[in-house]
Hints:
Layout lengths: L5 H10 L7 E4 L3 H12 L5 E3 L4 E3 L19 E4 L2 H10 L5 E5 L13 E2 L7 E2 L6 H7 L3 E5 L25 H4 L8 E6 L3 E4 L6 E6 L5 H5 L8 E7 L5 H16 L8
Parallel strand pairs: 1-2, 1-5, 5-8, 8-9, 11-12
Antiparallel strand pairs: 2-3, 3-4, 6-7, 9-10, 10-11
Helix pairs in contact: 1-2, 2-7
Amino acid sequence: xxxxxxxxxxxxxxxxxxxxxxxxxxxxxxxxxxxxxxxxxxxxxxxxxxxxxxxxxxxxxxxxxxxxxxxxxxxxxxxxxxxxxxxxxxxxxxxxxxxxxxxxxxxxxxxxxxxxxxxxxxxxxxxxxxxxxxxxxxxxxxxxxxxxxxxxxxxxxxxxxxxxxxxxxxxxxxxxxxxxxxxxxxxxxxxxxxxxxxxxxxxxxxxxxxxxxxxxxxxxxxxxxxxxxxxxxxxxxxxxxxxxxxxxxxxxxxxxxxxxxx
Length: 262
């Protein structure tokens, strides 16, 4: 079996959610790597829609540092503004799925990328929303990527809801006025793959990577984690898959991205 790290499996598993021909919203950071891996492995004809206003149609050999990086220019099918991509494409329902980074995500899929502690008196101020609130509000299938492995990345309740998930669970998202065809689809992390209960909307462990221990995963989240009755065994990576993942991480590292485990 090809050797791998949980982080590499997270990137590969996320890439496999992308189908050839997809138009998807690609958030900053790890979603950008996952979409590039997908484009090289099995989905060359995807349209990667970025918050900055661009729609990438062909592979850019250099990792863009943001979704508005001018290096994307020659590879764009469309170059517009944030209003075009967040409203004209995302909110209008033209994208099959979206991917977003989740530095802190709770049991109901709410993401905090704003502050640690009370909003008015935080212990630390984070990067903030950008288009993260729009993604939570309007994505038909929102896939969240988290490189965290400890409870501080998976609290029972986030300190601040930057990206709305299922709010307080059950029908609270619908009562808040969000469209019923929107919301989180899954969390893909270094721990495994989590999906959401169709009634309670609470995240549960759906699948694990080779060699993972369920009890260790349970102790790494801040709530009483439920496990699927038929827990999926996510297959180990093939040699070519890991080659592409590592090449893309090398490219990201060359652009001064910090890669977990390196």
